[in-house]
Amino acid sequence: MSLKDILAFAVSLEADAAVLAAAEGLAQRFDADLTLAQLTLLPEEPLAYEPGLVAGVWAHLLGAAREEAKAEQQRINAHLQAQAGRKHLRALEAQPRDLGRMAALHARYCDLAILARPDSEALRGMRFEMIEGVLLQSGRPALIIPPGWPGARPIGRRPMIAWDTSREAVRALAEAGSFLDVCEEAIIVTVDAKPKTFGHGPYPGANIAAHLERRGTQTEIRNLATDSEGVAGALLTAARECGADLIVMGAFGQSPLMELMFGGATRDVLIRAEIPLLLAH
After folding, report:
1. CA angle at residue 5 from 89 to 78, to 5 degrees?
2. Which has the closest alpha carbon to 104: 25, 41, 37?
3. Is residue 195 within 8 Å of residue 166, measured between CB atoms?
4. Collapsing DSSP states into helix, strand and coil, what is residue 202?
5. For every one of its 281 residues, what pLDDT tens digit does the chain have, with 9 covering 90 and above?
6. What is the DSSP letter of 254?
7. Rounded Cα–Cα distance for residues 183 and 16 (Å)
């Protein structure tokens, strides 16, 4: 299914310039509608022994956050109105505990959700919450854009597929169909893959390459071994070496909590990737 309904999440025009540029480029490329969801983070309700006093302070903070959001929405709307294409602005607000659920709710009604890669310390937690919400609760894929990604650079002309035969990898591959149908070549990368009957088969990467070539996609297979940087390091090094402009991979084969406690490829790649990621769970 071609991309026809794209949703991009943004906090501000300045902080999410790369997200907006990438979303506009894809909307133009696939002749898709683009909705920009501007998300305002509301302050948590404080707990205290003086409810009347605290309620007044919280109401002031709430009003300030909404006033700032209104000004940001006007800036974003002016930007959208100056661009060609079918573009819409959607104003959202949520407290920190509801960020993931809010992002997931709106992502359900699009073909692709586009979000910024967690980067600055001030917004890192917020961005992780939104990405995890989209991936684990919406059933939709997430396209993660790194800071500074040039808007004029196409995405997905030379995708790299991180293939491990898992259900999550299959989902990501299916969601990448719009890119794979028009790419120049897809690079299939396995890491520490072994021939196995109920896995890669006798030749790691060969079965999925044959499948993609039956769909008309030219492929190349690269089987890698991990080094001291682990799976994430091997994938990111391979992406640089093959000139990939998109990494397609399954996300959270283990829970986000387990990844946070013990490490995992999804979180490591999310933090370090310098090219866009197409993730699905």
Report:
1. 25
2. 37
3. no
4. coil
5. 689 999 999 999 999 999 999 999 999 999 999 999 999 988 887 765 556 656 677 788 888 888 988 999 999 989 888 888 899 999 999 998 999 999 999 999 999 999 999 886 767 888 999 999 999 999 999 999 999 898 778 999 999 999 999 999 999 999 999 999 999 999 999 999 898 888 898 999 999 999 999 999 999 999 999 877 789 999 999 999 999 999 999 998 765 555 454 347 888 999 999 999 999 99
6. S
7. 26
